[in-house]
Specification:
Number of helices: 1
CATH architecture: Beta Barrel
Number of strands: 6
Number of domains: 1
Largest sheet: 6 strands, antiparallel, barrel
Strand content: over 45%
CATH topology: Thrombin, subunit H
Shape: globular
Radius of gyration: 14 Å
Helix content: 10-25%
């Protein structure tokens, strides 16, 4: 059963997470209008809130997020399986426009 309100799109976008006084790095591997999955070695607490900055071809999106789930790799999984699922809190218009363009592009290539 699908629980997501929006379709997720595959991605490979560099990200910086500003948690406390430390900046962590990660890679956004999928995204939507309301959430994203970020591969990272840092295990953030569930329900923690912070700012994530995503970089895409010269654009920078600064988005407040809340950690909704943690995914830890085991000995059978790869590093790409380690990360966090986040819910976007009031995503900016430019980010929503970017996702809309990605969806339109994806739909036109899959017809």
């Amino acid at each position: 059963m699908e629980r997501r309100a929006y379709e997720r799109l595959s991605a490979q976008l560099q990200a910086r997470m500003f948690y406390g006084n430390i900046v962590y790095t990660g890679t956004v591997t999928n995204l939507s209008e309301s959430g994203m999955f970020v591969t990272t070695r840092m295990n953030f607490p569930v329900d923690s809130m912070f700012i994530i900055v995503v970089f895409q071809n010269g654009q920078t999106f600064k988005i407040p997020v809340k950690v909704s789930r943690i995914s830890k790799a085991n000995h059978h999984a790869g590093a790409e399986d380690t990360g966090i699922g986040v819910t976007l809190l009031n995503p900016p218009r430019d980010y929503l426009d970017f996702v809309g363009k990605c969806k339109a592009s994806s739909a036109s290539t899959h017809r």
